[in-house]
Amino acid sequence: MNELTENMRFGTVRTFKGSTPIKSYVISCGDSYAFMVAATSFDWITITSPEAALVFLDAWRAAGSPCVKIAVVGAGTASIFNEARVSSKQLIDVAFVPSKATGKVLASELPNHGNDGCTVLYPASAKAGHDIEEGLSNRGFQVMRLNTYTTEAVQHVDQMIFEQALSASVVAVASPSAIRAWVNLVAESERWGGSVACIGETTASAAKRMGLRNVYYPSSPGIQGWVDSIIDALGIHKQVQKV
C-alpha cells in the first residue's frame, strides 16, 4: 500500500511581489488509500499538511465519502477542509487542532477520550519524520502510518531563474524538504549568502542542521507568522546594506 504511482499533482504557488517560485511536484498514491479509508474505522485521522489534506480528500471521495473525525496540525491545514465540509453535509468532522502547530504538540495533546486502544490513521509524506507516530504510540494509541505521497525536487532549473534566485536576499521555505532542495541547488555556488525565512520551528531546525545562518521563523507556525518572518529578514538585510 505504500507503493507510489506516477499520478502527479501540481500545487498552487502563491508569490510575493517580485518573487520567483522554484516549483517541486508531488506524487500521490491512489486506490489502496481509498480502500483503507473505506474499509477501516479509525477513531482519528491525523492530517499534518495542506498537501496531505488534498490527497486525503481525493481518497475520501473515492471511498464514498464516509464519516470521519479529523485532527489537523494547524489552521492552514484545517482551511483545506472548509470547502469540502460545506458540500459534505458535515461528514468530515475537524475535531481537533493542537495549541501549537507542530507534530510533537499534536501527538502530545490528541485526546484519547479514555480509550486505551484509540486508533489513528496517519497519512503522511514518505519524507515526513516520525514524531507523530512515536509520540502517539508512547501514549498508548494504535497508529497506522500510511505514506500517501512524496515530494521530489525539480531536477533542472532554468539558468536565468536560478540567477535571479541567487540574487535574493531572503529565501522563504515551508518544509524541511524545500530547504534541502534549496541547499542542494546552491551547493556548488558560493554566491548566495542570504537569509532563510521558515514557516515554523521544524523547518528552521532543518535549516540550521544544514549549516545555514540567519534563519528566521515565527514562534507559532502559520502563514501570517511566516509573512512576518520574511518581513523581519528583509528588514535586517536592508539595515545591513545601509551600514
From TrEMBL:
GO terms for biological process: protoporphyrinogen IX biosynthetic process; uroporphyrinogen III biosynthetic process. Keywords: Lyase, Porphyrin biosynthesis. GO terms for molecular function: uroporphyrinogen-III synthase activity. Its EC number is 4.2.1.75. Residues 41-227 form the Tetrapyrrole biosynthesis uroporphyrinogen III synthase domain. Pathway: Porphyrin-containing compound metabolism; protoporphyrin-IX biosynthesis; coproporphyrinogen-III from 5-aminolevulinate: step 3/4. One of its GO terms (cellular component) is chloroplast. PANTHER family: UROPORPHYRINOGEN-III SYNTHASE, CHLOROPLASTIC. Belongs to the uroporphyrinogen-III synthase family. This is Uroporphyrinogen-III synthase.
